[in-house]
Amino acid sequence: MIRVSRNQTARAFSAAPAAPAGGARITGGRGCGYLAVVPFALSALSVAAAEPVAVPSGQPVTLAEVLLDEAAGQAGETWARFRFLAPEIARGSGSVGYEAAAPDMDHLCETLALPYLAEQDLTAARVVISLSDRAVPFGAQDPAATQFFEAYRPDSAACIWEAF
Q: Are 18 and 138 a contacting pair, CB within 8 Å?
């Protein structure tokens, strides 16, 4: 669904707010700046969102939402954010650590994000893949949540890892 307003956000099931000024607070990484969200079609991901996506670790991963935004301080630089739920990364009760989840994020970028961008004729300077053990609104803080993030530079049919 795409909410039509001053800032538009695409999400698999409903509209979501953009990150607050100053960005999201992410442990071990960097936050995002104020976002000006760019609208785009979500039809291809709406069906896929309810179904688990196969990943190398074998953990159950489902698409939660996809966002396109213009990065703060980077005029004209669009970032595509693919947010996934991955309950097995939970601290304490989960069975998948970062070492096992990192190849999953690489795989999701190359097999889901890049084909989607190509199918929708979208260009992104960066693709961010995030895994979260629970649903957390974009830009919100949840100290109990476990979240892993990786950023990539799309290059033809490959995702080039970019350090945060």
A: yes
The per-residue pLDDT for range 101-155, each reduced to its tens digit, is 999 999 999 999 999 999 999 999 999 999 999 999 998 999 999 999 999 999 9
Instruction: Give me the count of residues in the chain.
Output: 164
Report strand pairing: 126-132 vs 78-85: parallel
Q: What is the DSSP letter of 88?
A: G
For residue 121, with 0-12 CB atoms within 10 Å meaning exposed, 13-18 middle and 19 or more buried, which class applies? exposed
Q: CA neighbours within 13 Å on the CB side: how many for 35?
A: 24
- CA separation (Å) from 34 to 18, 38, 72, 93, 119? 8, 13, 6, 34, 27
In angstroms, rounded to a whole number, what is the distance separating the alpha carbons of residues 15 and 129? Answer: 19
Residue 63 CA to residue 45 CA, distance in Å, equals: 8
Closest alpha carbon to 18 in 37, 2, 31, 4: 37
Considering the domain 36-162 in this protein, what is its CATH number? 3.10.310
